[in-house]
Amino acid sequence: MISRISSAYENFAFKFLEFDGRATRLEYWCVIPLIWLFIFLMLPGDAAEIWGHLLQRDVPPLNPFHYGSLGFFLFTFVPRLSLTVRRLHDAGRSGKWAKLPFTAVSLGLVLSVGLLTAIPMSDPSGLGPGLMVAGAVTASLSGSFWEALFNLAAIANSLDWDAILTTLLGVAAQADPGGVLDQTGALTAHDPLLGFQFLFQFTLIALGPFIALLLHLYFMLLPSQRGENAHGTSPLPSRTRRSRGRPENAYAGYAYLTKRTEEEERQLHAARKAQVRELYQRRVLGKPDSSAQL
């Protein structure tokens, strides 16, 4: 097992440009979770550094490799993508399914933007619209892009985010999901095709990220296809009824080195038979050793 785990990291390092071939579940799950763990562990420190620069009205370093999380994410992007494609090949799936995480992120961004614009506008206290108007005015009055970011960071730092989050969460809890169904029903009654299009788009945006991530997780957990498929030979040995459930013989591949012909087998059998006969005569019958007389 230790050799297989070390082999997984070696393949990740030395096959980073190989989009052909196959990779087992162990090879994928030994590497990818560890990479994302490192990225998320470094992310808070990088975000705090950028936030500190903005509050000091100082332009943060623009080199992406200055930040550990972003640099590590970019440095491992191609190896992670190639490993995902090889894992799909090993499960008998097309490498095109590697687009699922990007689809989930894209739909998630669309959903997030929709929620950020819908929740504040539905806030009866007027806090959400006020923040949006204040941010838009501040950005428009700033002379440059960085000046706008500096001003927005200063405003955000002066706000009581606990009260704001409490208000927004209260508005979100009071949201009526039935309103979407009522709106869909009204559209369907007026124009069935338009109603179904609205329902399809809403479902795709709301559930699309979760469906894409679950489907990606399902593909990554699929077992390896034994033997060969369109993408090559499986890294795992084929299972047969005789070998299933039994430990594999590591020296089975070297059996030809000790394999004897039929003539050699007959000579060996005759020599062993003569040796047993001579041993019987000496030990049981008490006859002298013939080789000693010579």
Overview of this protein structure:
- This protein has 294 residues and is mainly α.
- The protein has 13 helices and two strands, in the order H-H-H-H-H-H-H-H-H-H-H-E-E-H-H.
- It has helices at residues 2-14, 25-29, 32-55, 68-75, 77-90, 100-121, 127-141, 145-158, 161-173, 177-190, 192-221, 262-283, 290-293, and strands spanning 228-229, 232-233.
- It has a two-stranded antiparallel sheet with strand order 1-2.
- The model has no long low-confidence stretch (mean pLDDT 77).
Rg over CA atoms: 35 Å
Number of strands: 2
Q: How can the largest sheet be summarized? A: 2 strands, antiparallel
Task: Please give the alpha-carbon distance between the first and last residues.
Answer: 58 Å
* Basic shape: elongated
* Unreliable residue runs: none
What is the N-to-C succession of helices and strands? HHHHHHHHHHHEEHH
Structural class: mainly alpha
Q: Give the overall pLDDT as a whole number.
A: 77
Question: How many helices in DSSP terms?
Answer: 13
> Fraction of residues in helices?
55-70%
- Which percent range describes the beta-strand content? under 5%
Q: Strand arrangement, largest sheet?
A: 1-2
Write the SSE topology.
Elements lengths: L1 H13 L10 H5 L2 H24 L12 H8 L1 H14 L9 H22 L5 H15 L3 H14 L2 H13 L3 H14 L1 H30 L6 E2 L2 E2 L28 H22 L6 H4 L1
Antiparallel strand pairs: 1-2
Helix pairs in contact: 3-4, 6-11, 7-8, 10-11
Question: Outline of this structure?
Answer:
The chain has helices at residues 2-14, 25-29, 32-55, 68-75, 77-90, 100-121, 127-141, 145-158, 161-173, 177-190, 192-221, 262-283, 290-293, and strands at residues 228-229, 232-233. The chain is an all-alpha fold and 294 residues long.
